[in-house]
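Hi F.,

I've been meaning to write this up properly since the lab meeting, where we talked about keeping a consistent format for the predictions we share between groups. The idea is simple: the sequence comes first, exactly as it goes in, then the structure tokens exactly as they come out, then a line or two of notes. No screenshots and no reformatting. I'm using this chain as the first example so we have something concrete to point to.
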Amino acid sequence: MIDQLGSELLKIRTTRTLPVLLLLAVALTLLGTTVEGLSRTGGELAQENAQRAVFNAAGSSVVLMATLAGLIAATAEFRYGTIRPTLMIEPRRRVIVAAKLAAASLAGIVFGVICVAVCFGAGLAIIAARDVNLALTGDHALALVLGPVGASVLGAMLGVAVGTLIRNQVGAIVALAAYAIAVDALLFAAVPSVGRFMPGKAGDALTGRPVEDLLAPGLGAAVLVAWTVTLVAAATVRNARTDI
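Output, unedited:
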């Protein structure tokens, strides 16, 4: 397991995909923070909900990019055929899946920490420049710091699970995008009481996003963990029973 994890980390470090996705996550975080901070009046920005929106700009961006990172890490093996030599060295497929999950989790932590730091740095600078007092409570601040990191880790693991289930890289990316738009977002808009239990909205709740009808952060974390465990289990079974 240790050797396989080292191999997965080497694959992540030596490809251009991870840095590109990380740069995109940082750029989207910075853009979101700037828009949220500068599009409001001073009075609006002084409200806690508005500041939560500013400091939550890292949430959706980092989770999306971390999920894509996990998905690409899983599907790249099948796209380029490297899964065959990987299986020759480590024939236990569950070990390969576990190593990919662990490597993706570490990447998720890196994504989350960097994007949260960028978001808070830019957000605090905007609030100070506009001469607005910081209104965040300690509980909300903690959720806005830890939530995106946790959601990024779980998102990366979900990406590995989806990539292992679908295997085709383009198909997996299209399926993920279609789900996010056609299922997650539309279901929440139409039936919030049901849609908030879907993975995307549970992730939004975990990141501390100030949107009505979302679950509490703790419950959102539990729902997202349940989805992650379910999909990882399904991916492990498929990987063990399907020919390469």
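Notes:
The mean pLDDT is 86.
Residues 91 and 169 are 22 Å apart (CA to CA).

If this format works for you, I'll send the rest the same way.

G.
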